[in-house]
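Problem: given the chain below (210 residues), write out its structure.
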Amino acid sequence: MAGKVQAVCRQCRREGAKLFLKGERCYTRKCSFERRSYPPGQHGQSGTTKVKEYGVQLREKQKMRRIYGLRERQFRTYLHEAMRRRGVTGETLLQLVELRLDNVVYRLGLASSRAQARELVSHAHFTVNGRKVNTASYLLRQGDVVEVKDTSKALQPIVNALEVTAGGRVPVWLGLEAEKRIGNVLRLPTRDDIDTQVDETLIVEFYSRH
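Solution.
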């Protein structure tokens, strides 16, 4: 995750939801959240803390930031861009972060987590429309083609990720040719296409306070 590094399982427990930050481990019984779903800390199991409206909105914002691995400044930039564009602000915000290159690599099953996808992209293992791109935040458009470089197609993290997912979790707005290590953006995602468990309206309300 960008910025301050924390134990990722504690982040899931803090937000009260599985954020899938550890890749395939999150889908197994080894997932720490499955065994200890209460918040971390000595008062985590008490369950007596009353959260006000502001706190609910804050937690939803933090949850989304942690899912996509964004710094606060990056997150605000996406929000301001979403507000500038036509459409529903919250849905546009989700669409923007979904179109990040690191997220698309993860969604295609070419990495087991967004953190791993971000690392692979930063090490220049991917091209977009035939050009090398090593910026995780690069925003893709409809029709863009993402391909693993020829010299990286046998890279073990990519091979392992494809073996685990087998293309089974690729969303409908993306296409994947697993053997060729090529993916493409078929169309822009809608809210119904995005399975991220956040209430984006709470996030927009949180920032509208400031």
